[in-house]
Amino acid sequence: MIRMQGGDETALAQFYDRWYPVVCGLAARMLKSADAVEDVVEETFWQAWRQANRYAPERGSVQTWLLTIARTRALDRLRAARRLREDSIDDTVGAAGDAAAPPVVVSASDPSLDVEHAERRRLVVAALGELPHEQREALELGYFGGLSQSEIAERTGQPLGTIKTRMRLALLKLRDRLSVLKEGSR
Amino acid sequence: MTPLNHEEAFAELDAVAFDLLDTVERDAIMAHVATCAACRAELDALQETAADIAFATPSTQHAAVASRERVRERLLARVGANGQSRKPKATPLVFPRVPTSPTAMPAMPERRNKPWLQIAAAALFVVSLGLLGWSFKNQRDANAIRSRLATAAATRKTADSLATQLAARDSLLAGIVGRDVTMMTLTSQAAKDPYARMFWDRARRSWTMIAHNMPALGANRTYQLWLITPKAKISAGTFTVRNGDGIVRATYDLTEPLNAIAVTEEPAGGVPQPTGSVVIAAQTR
Questions:
Q1: pTM of the model
Q2: Cα B174–B176–B179 angle (5° rounding)?
Q3: Are residues A53 and A122 in the same domain?
Q4: What is the domain-level CATH number for residue A67?
Q5: For A98-142, how does the pLDDT look when each residue is reduced to its tens digit (9 = 90+)?
Q6: Which residue among B58, B75, B79 sits closest to A25, beta carbon to beta carbon?
Q7: Minimal C-alpha gap between A68 and chain B (Å)
Q8: DSSP line for B174-189
Q9: d(CA B186, CA B263)
């Protein structure tokens, strides 16, 4: 990050190689079109490059910063597509419902990074798998589908307060479950 | 809009972390967050957890090498182009315009009676042919330049890729053979004699453990590395093995004395505190 902040293009290339699999995986999960996925990946790293100086380590890890950018860009695309009626919420929900699909790990240039990302992926998938179905559903509809809590309530036929509670509980459980990960990477 | 109180804002932090609110709602909550350290810390933690969820996504065919390289090339080209000063505009090729408007044409009835007009037309034709040939040559030159640029881009991509690999290996080597790296060997009493070497780079707070001859794990099981201090057993990550070999890397600023290192077998995903039997361990004090 420091080298990127200094304008080192080589650092950007390394940053891209390291984080591409996760960013691409997230974009692919949220969007249907391969072109849209590529655009979101490019825009994410472009924004990371342009705004590297805005990254504040005290506010969170690089991965949190980058993946927040990636998800925001994907949400922009998703919502724009919805507005244009080029995409349907039904399709989005369908895409968000296959979290249990086995991950296909893309080879990165550094085998140890493969290991690190694979471990993190295993832990997160396991943590999500331990959530009650209704909590996981609410979480995934919001996170991957970009549905608001009201839209989730409407879609699942549950009161808004119930959805808020489910998401809250799910996040707290995830945070607790993933704390072991934070200890290891801090 | 009435400012939100702490309870109202706190209740909506999940939605902020998930970016599920419209601008007005979000701004109202963020106005409170800007003045509330507790909400700020909670939001940071929620965003950290939300970002972790991205790791649950399976990589798809989108992640094919061609796509990866294509985006990489576009990104780096964009960065390169952005770094340049404004490019001079290319001088447009100007072809002699053949008049098409009747008002621009000489009076037709006198055409046959004006031999100079035929000469001028013939001259214009010859000039046009010459310009056409010149433009074809330019096109060939442009193609050649494009080809050279593509070759240069490919070479640069290869160089970047090699540099990336070298940097990654340098990083790994630095974590193992650095001047300040302490090495500890973890052993066991088992028949297959699993063992591991832990490289602790205090300056970089980097921990790299490479294990060998590790027993195969059962389904939904993982190995978990622990740093044991007088006060706590700290997880330093989980790992699986392939043909008995495994590696785990972590960055952790250990502020307490290190008593021992141990690897236990645990449920997939790891556990907050060790529950399984110790597979390999090393005393450090």
A1: 0.51
A2: 65
A3: no
A4: 1.10.1740.10
A5: 333 333 333 444 455 566 777 788 888 888 989 999 999 999 899
A6: B58
A7: 6
A8: HHHH-TTEEEEEEB--
A9: 9
Q: The tokens of A172 are what?
A: 């707290």
Instruction: Looking at the structure, tell me whether residues A27 and A75 fall in a common domain.
Output: yes
Please check whether residue A94 lies inside any domain of the structure.
no
CB A123 within 8 A of CB A181: yes
Q: For residues A66 and A128, state if they share a domain.
A: no
CA distance B231 to B208: 22
Residues of B in contact with A154 (CB under 8 A): none
User: Chain-centre distance of CA A141, in angstroms?
Assistant: 12
Tell me the two tokens of residue A57.
Answer: 């380590």
Structural domain harbouring A163: 103-186
Last residue of a domain, one of A87, A115, A145: A87
| CATH code at position A112 | 1.10.10.10
Q: State the average pLDDT over residues B118-123.
A: 74
Structural Rg of chain B based on CA atoms: 35
Looking at the complex, does the CB of residue B222 fall below 8 Å from at least one CB of chain A? yes
Residues for chain A: how many in total?
186
Distance spanning both ends of chain A, measured CA to CA: 16
